[in-house]
């Protein structure tokens, strides 16, 4: 199965709260370009998409949804910037089993995205993610380990 982890696009520096920071035009275009590159590799449909409730993540999903199709979309407060990667990985593993998922996309934030990759790829140091970056992991739920299939950066 495939797990896709994407960091939101570039966001404005200031807003009333961190959760309300909106994407910049550059963030919108970079996210769309990454989605197009992923789709060109044959990955356009996800069994489930899990998106942070923060505005910049929601807007990133809106931008990439023009290239991607999702059977189910879930907004999760657990994947905000300081979410617990171990808890999120356990939740994703449970969803994979309960919903028989073949693909899942998470749209989230630093530092969580790096820690999530390290949860799903055994013995990996959490990678840094540029804004709009996307990593695809070939994942074996039975072994609870995977390896990076590809990494798309804007």
From TrEMBL:
Gene3D superfamilies: Phosphoglycerate mutase-like. Keywords: Hydrolase. InterPro entries: His_Pase_superF_clade-1, His_PPase_superfam, Mito_Ser/Thr_phosphatase, SixA. SMART domains: PGAM (SM00855). This is Phosphohistidine phosphatase SixA. It comes from Vibrio japonicus.
């Amino acid at each position: 199965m495939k797990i896709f982890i994407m960091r939101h696009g570039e966001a404005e520096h200031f807003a009333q709260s961190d959760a309300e920071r909106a994407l910049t035009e550059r963030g919108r275009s970079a996210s769309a370009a990454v989605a197009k590159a992923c789709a060109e590799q044959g990955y356009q449909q996800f069994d489930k998409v899990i998106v942070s409730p923060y505005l910049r993540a929601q807007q990133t999903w809106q931008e990439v949804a023009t290239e991607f199709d999702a059977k189910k979309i879930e907004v999760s407060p657990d994947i905000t910037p300081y979410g617990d990667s171990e808890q999120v990985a356990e939740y994703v593993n449970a969803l994979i089993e309960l919903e028989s998922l073949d693909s899942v996309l998470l749209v989230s934030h630093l530092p969580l995205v790096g820690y999530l990759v390290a949860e799903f790829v055994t013995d990996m140091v959490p990678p840094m993610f540029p804004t709009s970056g996307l990593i695809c992991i070939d994942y074996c739920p039975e072994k609870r380990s995977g390896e990076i299939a590809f990494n798309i950066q804007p």
